[in-house]
Amino acid sequence: MQDFPLTLDRFLDHAAKWHPQAEVVTARGDGGVDRVGYAGLRERAVRISGVLADAGVRFGDRVATLAWNTQAHVEAWYAIMGMGAVCHTLNPRLTAEQLAGMLDQSQARILIVCGDLLPLALAVAGRTGIVPRVLVIDGALPEEAIATPRVDALDALVAESEAEDAPWGGFDERTPAGLCFTSGTTGPPKGVTYTHRSSFLHTLRTLHTDVMAISGRDSVLVAVPMFHANAWGLPFAAPASGAKLVLPGRSNDGASLARLILSEGVTVAVGVPTVWLGLVEHLEAIGGDLPTLRRIIVGGAPMAPALMERLEARLGVTVQTSWGMTELSPSGTVAVPEDPDRSPAASGKPAIGVDLLLTDANGTPLPEQRGVEGHLRVRGAAVVSRYFGQETDATDASGWFPTGDLARIDERGNLFITGRAKDLIKSGGEWINPAEIEACIGALPQISQAAVIGRPDAKWGERPILLVELREKESISDEALLGALRGRVASWWIPDAVIRLPTMPLAATGKIDKVQLRRQHG
Amino acid sequence: MQDFPLTLDRFLDHAAKWHPQAEVVTARGDGGVDRVGYAGLRERAVRISGVLADAGVRFGDRVATLAWNTQAHVEAWYAIMGMGAVCHTLNPRLTAEQLAGMLDQSQARILIVCGDLLPLALAVAGRTGIVPRVLVIDGALPEEAIATPRVDALDALVAESEAEDAPWGGFDERTPAGLCFTSGTTGPPKGVTYTHRSSFLHTLRTLHTDVMAISGRDSVLVAVPMFHANAWGLPFAAPASGAKLVLPGRSNDGASLARLILSEGVTVAVGVPTVWLGLVEHLEAIGGDLPTLRRIIVGGAPMAPALMERLEARLGVTVQTSWGMTELSPSGTVAVPEDPDRSPAASGKPAIGVDLLLTDANGTPLPEQRGVEGHLRVRGAAVVSRYFGQETDATDASGWFPTGDLARIDERGNLFITGRAKDLIKSGGEWINPAEIEACIGALPQISQAAVIGRPDAKWGERPILLVELREKESISDEALLGALRGRVASWWIPDAVIRLPTMPLAATGKIDKVQLRRQHG
Question: Which of A306, B367, B465, B489 could join B493 in a cystine, given CB atoms 3.0 to 4.6 angstroms apart?
């Protein structure tokens, strides 16, 4: 059989040749959009590869990006990866200090940044030992930056470039392609290195009819950031299948997304639950329908049953739940599209290329793998084996990666994430699982968001407290809240106190920030 | 990222763990069926690996099969491939002489054979230099065979086996897994070696929503033989997705298939056009519906527009056309499911992992790749690079494999196979393409099958003649037949003669046997 290295540049080659007119559409922020076909996008990506090579980037070098979901960011991804360099995505919601620490680890000497993030980029650059060169995309270079040494507009360099033979593909499929740091709530953040092969195979899984089922007839709205775990791989899956790729820029508010879904005929929308909460609240407030939208794929946080029902009823869509993490490239399991037995608590079953194992706290496989709760381990073609720059494996002796999640798998093989091992609360020597309490409370129609954390307690060691954010114009008494738990969780699991928050604090990835909650209320 | 070799044993491991109850169902021939879940099937396959190892089969050895589409044949496939041996599938519709020649090439010293094919197997064994050991599946060993040296019932060996550590997986993904000879109408047949990697990647492509879209909710009837080009990869795709695999044994007649589709809730049926002609004729004769059937995937031969219309109208299905060949593992392109613009003449566009190129007769790429006819070349992860045992590559200097097909690609990227280069007729120094004439004639409602071949002609070198098989109870005059061509092909393309055949001769793969037609009528 022919040699056919699984490298990511092929996705753009394929799209340019077989879906040249299929578009990448970016919301500009002024209500307008920018469009480019895959043929045009590939041409630009290759030219940027040439510019980066001119700028001294060599095979295997890291190049960082600090950017929103835009066409220029997609071009930068493919330019970097297509030449065999490593795209190190940075999260603009982190501090300059945190980002500088990551750059010091990756040693990226070029930082590609969206115009509006230039001040943050310069703050980061000033704090690193390497002082990267900054290339600005998406927006004109501000007056004051033009004189700044080592800051350039990428487009100006592309226009000037005379590079003829831009490097593009033709290398080993196990070449690193991407680098993403986990949000790391404890200890220094850890980097996960994706290879061309792992992201290629992850993409093929995404295209399966029982996974994300992305088709050339789809218009896919990617409301999960490209700086976070490959935007769930959709900037790969869209060109690989010829789907239209719709990018919201930096605006994920309900009004912006509704406008984009309508104007671009979006059929599949992908993002964390809170984003869709914003969308449905917008539509409930102003009215209107999204007739082309058929599916919403959610992940990254538990799905509240009330929200799932509301989305399906109000938008006429099917919600597909999923589970993943940065270390999994990031998709682990996705519920089958249109599954009549779908449930907000279930995350689907693994497709070929992913395998799951439940163990005890020490990593010993449970004798029974169905219907019991255990610590979840995972193995597969797109699962981390060792964190960036570390000397020891992240996997156990049998090659399984411990996720830190608690989970149950039902008789049909569906995964239910039941909590995070480190979120467990130890009360009177016994474990309380906050996720189970949160699921009960989250199911109440008055609740927008709910979190349970442990508070030190002289007698019991720790006791749970409940924090809630109510939906607009709703009210509910503490008694009613806690009463909803009676008979559904053990009586000693019922929280000692209820705290009401106007807004639940969210971490950079959109999940509830339990570290902050513990600091302020624990 | 973790090491995760793409080996085919993983499909059965995956199905056994995540779809243990999903079934492989085999029609027995007496109207009944045999069933096994994937967990049970895997257990049997591993035990057979142990038996083969006991019998002296080593990593890399070839083991031949001469069998119909049955559970036992699937078990043999996985047993052979799972231990790192090479499964050499033999076509029972070939002669003992032809098969012996293939065995002499592959040097398979074990031949696994369905009970009813034992006489053929013994005839083959007697003609080879290697005298393979014969293991019988599917049916009791006949009296006279029990005393035959080197003939055993495989099940008896499995029952006796005390093998504890059957070999299973754990080897390099580029290990050869399968061997299939092309029907080779000229010259000695050529063998194509599939590797684990190539068939794994071919399977992932098959699961795409824009390709065969096989889902765990499907029940897939495989009416294309397992001895021919991996049965289009469906014995891999079904366990990889958890789909039910429905096998018709040796009976592909309309009545048997209709019964099986009804009893097993078949949703997707796969095979050459003539098989579905038999199905629709059966239903038209006896009445009845197939309510679960949603799609029929056809390939291996041109699809007559009248048959496609008839299938869709009578069965309420969508027909998906496709194009492939043994050298492509075998799928090249598949029309998108439910494509509103589908056409019997189109074969879909390439999915990621396959690329197409049109050249002139010398292999020089055509300057324009859309809307013009050329010689089709193909490149991809599951495309042959060199035939079995040969010293030179089957590809050109740029790695493209010349298919021998003539094709056109439209503006949307859809492939239209317009003929075989070697079927072209040279008349008065100009080329006539029989496929275009056949398509016009095949569209007539009276026609079941049509073929055009060249006949030597003193004046013009060659002249075309038309051979037709009419549909039952239909009639049409020669004048009307040829009249249908006027205005649709050049006047000098119109055949000089019409020959009516009671039955069109078919080659072993179900295609019209033009070699025989040329011998008898050319």
Answer: B489
